[in-house]
Design goal:
Layout: H1 2-24, H2 39-81, E1 86-90, E2 94-98, H3 100-144
Antiparallel strand pairs: 1-2
Helix pairs in contact: 2-3
Length: 145
């Protein structure tokens, strides 16, 4: 009879340990804040994340073009101040003599192209912002109920 009590006691201790173990480890989905949302909302959040990544890439392109535009403006100003012979570097290895007018023409064409690209990026930026804001508002409505 003494052994039966020990067995029951040991069995009860094992059950308590199992219960504690189960309470300490919540289901795996509890770590995922999206787990309680419906599939449509989860898809919208994923789309929002992809749009935001695309938006960041667009801003990086815009920054690169902005720096190139500033550099081109500087070249144009310096060439306009220059008198006499002008050389240009091509491919970091070849130096070619050129005329002031030829370089100014090339740099102004380059500047025009950069400005068109920047205008295009500005339009894309507006589109991204509208899409992101629209989806964000929908997601917030769904989350808040």
């Amino acid at each position: 009879m003494e052994e039966e009590r020990k067995d029951e006691h040991n069995h009860d201790l094992e059950e308590e340990r199992k219960d504690e173990h189960d309470h300490n480890h919540a289901p795996e989905q509890a770590g995922n804040p999206l787990a309680n949302l419906d599939q449509e909302t989860q898809s919208m959040i994923q789309e929002l994340q992809m749009l935001e990544q695309g938006f960041q890439q667009l801003l990086m392109q815009k920054n690169a073009f902005s720096m190139e535009s500033n550099e081109t403006d500087l070249i144009i100003k310096e060439v306009e101040k220059t008198e006499g012979e002008i050389s240009r570097i091509i491919g970091n290895q070849v130096v070619i003599k050129s005329t002031k007018d030829e370089i100014l023409k090339d740099m102004k064409n380059k500047k025009e192209l950069i400005d068109k690209r920047m205008a295009s990026i500005d339009e894309q930026e507006k589109d991204y912002s509208k899409k992101i804001e629209s989806i964000r508002e929908e997601v917030m409505k769904k989350i808040q109920g």
